[in-house]
Design goal:
homodimer, about 425 residues, Alpha-Beta Plaits, Maf protein, 6-stranded mixed β-sheet
Chain lengths: ~425, ~425
């Protein structure tokens, strides 16, 4: 079973808005065992949308449109679907009533333009929108199916979860496609590829393919088949990959490094504090993305200026002068200083040159020292990261989290 | 002149990778006065790519393909363009030599598979790739033009800047499309729309359309016409919008709030320090995104735990107990405390409930107090931000920066 997505909106073509809906729908379709083979993005022009729809319907069994269901003259998807299928738009009193109700609840009178949203192509089944005013709909015609959804993710996602996904699962009950992503940190893409060279099968079933991310490598295993067997297919590949990569794999699927490290800290009852120079707060920001991180994260010091390193973290002024702010000595003292200052079990110190300026031949842009102070010892890693300012900062936060992770693996719960 | 983009790559359909290239190319095409009307994303399958290419070529004058130029069996764009146009692939010894050279420089022998990248469709003009091994190319045929570019942005962007953009400008020397984005902060979308209702012209020339971003509203002015007149068309609309919105507009186009505030601080010779609780380092991270921010940003304290607020920032323990960590009193003392501790001219304090848990009926999720301590006074703003944890944190950092900005406007350079 083949599906295509037609995204409507000039702002998507201009790149003013990143189209996260398509990625989301791609995943949902995959979970339903439906192959997504094309995604078209078209400008807000009736003739363009109609043409794209006709082409997609001719190729695919299922066409999902995203956007263009609003009340303004820019919103043309309803008209385009009517025109592409030949099904006239019909006024639905029950939809009009729901839209009026939506405004009543907010104590506002419904603008007349919103009545436009009460029209559906003949034969279409409305999908209720609990968040906004635009109903979606499903239109079946001659063994094909068009599903129209509004653009805002906060409206689209509940409609997909509650109506569209169950509908698609029923359409295609036999075969499913399942993916599992194994996430690797602390090793480069070429190293990872070499380690699993003989297991790679980009086109096989199950398939295994690597994707390089900044300071992570993702290994995606995909299996297609009957529900009962795909899980086993995935597990077999996963076991083999894990044998090769061991603790270089930090998590799977949606897991993030900051969440994995947080769980490990919580599990061991340990607390963490950070001292950040070149990352300027990024590490703390990432750690506190996780709800409940206050259980193990106490806080930190953004020691951007040298005076902050010296006066608040207690870095030795003489060492700052002799070795420079970007040095192993200073990184170690930052980690130890913040650990002591904030009375945490573990302290991290990061100092480096993120660029684009400030590098010398001896201390190039990308040079970052990262230290971890623990109750037993302080360890420090010297890195020269490639990439621009933001990539260097990201890699620094990533490496710091990975140092904590690998230390925690060696110090399991007692 | 019409253009379409064909992006090749299953990972783009799965949503594992966000397609920033298309947005970038959309902007470049627009600057060259070429209308981008469709963007298709196709799986790594030869027949899919060929079909998408044929369709795009039939509709558009210029078709840009992105991706699929690598050396592996997955990379099929070269073959697809050859098949769609009927121009056979020809081996180019000079390209092979360049690719061998690329590997020689890194001290590595060229894998045989890379020779694939030395083939081009007959009649194509190679575009040199200074970063990677995949050359791009331009193929003109029967008044149409196909431009093939590699997927990694670090390879694509230099090729576009150096070859593709000048080529397109020459193709379409008459008409240009220019956009200018005015960025508003501190006011909601509906407020902004109401203020400029009568100036709005989503379909006009020049057009004016609003786009809501988290804690920002972007007003995009677009003008199409001869080079000499479009700039003036944009300026006329901009002047009218600025008359209405004044200092609610913080910047234009690529300007970011953290950069604008940084410039103002630098201009006035003032320094800043931050005390962050619920944002966990986000504000510091954003401020230090700007190269050279060490000129005005000294550092800060991530006071996630109450003990850090009390012992390091000097927040009164009694007040913490009486009013709670999320209170105006604590925000003020955080701002004043960090200003004093770090000896900065300005201090910011942020304390709030980012959620998803921790809210009460009296102090709901989204309640954030933000204080700004200055040499003259401390001001504090109580906010109840809508949205999830990340949106609340983003809005908090945004509002903090805007408070600094508005205070600096009132305190111009002496």
């Amino acid at each position: 079973m083949r599906a295509e997505i037609v995204s409507v909106g000039s702002e998507l073509l201009w790149g003013k808005t990143i189209d996260t809906n398509s990625s989301y729908l791609g995943r949902i379709l995959q979970e339903c065992g439906i192959e997504l083979l094309r995604k078209s993005t078209v400008a807000d022009r009736l003739e363009e949308i109609v043409q794209a729809l006709r082409e997609s319907v001719s190729r695919a069994d299922i066409v999902i449109t995203v956007g263009g269901l609003g009340p303004t003259s820019d919103d043309l998807t309803r008209e385009a679907i009517s025109s592409a299928t030949g099904n006239p738009l019909i006024f639905k009193e029950e939809l009009a009533e729901r839209i009026r109700e939506h405004f009543r609840k907010r104590g506002v009178e419904m603008p007349e333009v919103n009545l436009k949203q009460a029209y559906l192509p003949e034969g279409a089944l409305a999908i209720d929108n609990r968040v906004g005013t635009a109903p979606g709909f499903i239109l079946e015609k001659e063994s094909k199916c068009i599903i129209a959804l509004p653009g805002p993710p906060s409206e689209l996602i509940p409609m997909v979860e509650e109506v569209v996904k169950p509908y698609l699962e029923e359409k295609n009950p036999e075969e499913v496609i399942i993916q599992r992503t194994l996430k690797v940190v602390g090793k480069g893409e070429s190293w990872v590829e070499e380690a699993i060279q003989d297991l790679m099968a980009p086109q096989g079933n199950p398939s295994l393919a690597p994707f390089a991310k900044p300071a992570e490598v993702h290994l995606v295993i995909t299996a297609r088949g009957k529900k009962e067997i795909v899980k086993k297919m995935i597990e077999e590949v996963e076991t083999k990959v894990r044998e090769r990569l061991g603790e270089d794999i930090f998590g799977v699927d949606e897991e993030e490094l900051e969440g994995v490290v947080g769980e490990m800290l919580r599990d061991r009852g340990l607390t963490l504090a950070v001292a950040e120079s070149c990352t300027g707060g990024l590490l703390g920001y990432r750690i506190t993305k996780i709800p409940g991180s206050s259980d193990y994260f106490l806080g930190g010091v953004i020691s951007y200026a040298n005076e902050v390193k010296r006066d608040i973290l207690g870095v030795n002024g003489e060492d700052l002068r002799r070795y420079g702010a970007v040095s192993e000595e200073v990184a170690r003292q930052m980690a130890e200083g913040v650990r002591k200052l904030i009375r945490a079990d573990l302290g991290v110190g990061i100092t480096g040159i993120a660029g684009p300026t400030g590098g010398t031949s001896e201390k190039p842009v990308g040079l970052v020292y990262i230290a971890l102070a623990t109750p037993e010892e302080t360890i420090c890693q010297r890195n020269v990261f490639p990439g621009d300012r933001e990539i260097v900062r990201w890699r620094s936060s990533q490496t710091a989290l990975d140092m904590v992770r690998r230390w925690l693996i060696k110090h399991p719960k007692e």
